[in-house]
Amino acid sequence: MLGFTLLLFLVAAGYALWRWPIAALRSLFERPAGAAFVLVSGNIEAHESVLSFTEVEAPIVALPFDEGAEVKRGTVLARVDDRPYRQQVQVDRAALAAAAARVTLDENSLLAAKHTVTSDGADLAEKKLDYARAEALAKTGTGTIQARDLALTAQKQSVAALERDKANLAVAAANLDVDRANEKGAAAKLKADELTLGYTTLRAPFSGVIAVREAELGELAGPGVAIFTLDDLDHVWLRAYVNERDLGKVRFGEPVAVTTDTYPGKIYKGRIGFISPQAEFTPKTVETHAERVTLVYRIRIDINNPTHELLPGMPADGRIRLLPP
Length: 325
Fold this sequence. Notes:
6-stranded antiparallel beta barrel, 3 helices, 12 strands, alpha+beta
């Protein structure tokens, strides 16, 4: 009997020792007492840009990509017939060259006019000396009145020549100002038309996937005519709603486990990137696993999507841990 009791004691002690590490390990992975989660549902969304030509209107001559193609930022997606715009740029360049030539000519004319005025000033100074000498000689009787009068006339002619050439100098300066302004205008027009020429090429504004191709070769493209819809699938998000009573337990930047029916068992790492500051009525399209309430707050769960598995419109669920308020 004693042996049987001892055996039972040893068995009980061994079972306790065996259970203790399992219980200890289990305590590391079980959810702490009081912790709770909320499961939200919504649809995957992504930045979508409808691309079209701006400032130009011409037939499409190149359209190398189709729907589903992945393109990098700056990739040429389409071109239109740019011959009229190239011709206009050539005309502008010729006009700018002509304007620059006129400016150079005006600069030379202005320089010549300045030299002429300087020469006139020196000539007038000499004519004034001649008249002064003739006047002095006439007063002493050693010179004639005629010589004095001729010197006076020469002085007046020199003054007139100086005034005329000063006026010509002002005209040359004004012409130079006008032609410099014309040169700036020609340069500005060339720059504008070169910019317009650049609009004949449609480039991807960001790296993404072509979701919709809405044009074909030969069609007339122009402002407002959609060519492609480009999706940014590298950075998608889940639009969901949180009940009013759980709002105080959800934090900006909190990690979220996102799952989809398309890839069962796969978890995508997300993070709360936006919490609306305003309440709104529950959308009819929203289905939550918690009890529906009248007021909800919209949240955005940002998700990295390097493999492009998550697509816009795809239903998805987000598991958010509720923190103490």
